[in-house]
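Lecture notes, unit on protein representations.

Consider one protein chain, 110 amino acids long.
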Amino acid sequence: ISCVMGGIEEKLINDNPKLMSFMKEALEKNKFDILKIVPYRFTPQGMTGIFVLGESHLAFHTYPERSALYLGMYSCRGPNDAQNTINFLRRTINPKKYLELSNHRVPLVF
């Protein structure tokens, strides 16, 4: 799933630790196996966060100057696992705008 969340409150979009905490909570809630967490903060603002999962990954990038967050999540588990995580984040972050760019279910074997 790839999506964009826009119209995020200024205080939240600039709170990197809180955003990382929300991502981790969403993954743990859906019982993903978090192998590694890689946050990178940009100067003067913004961040990229990557969660390496036993099941694949979640990555996001913030654009505080646009009050936006771009997020991509891929999972080799059931068809709704990534969607459940994204839905949790959408409720938690509460963006004014949401656009799902893609939700492709790719088979593991062709």
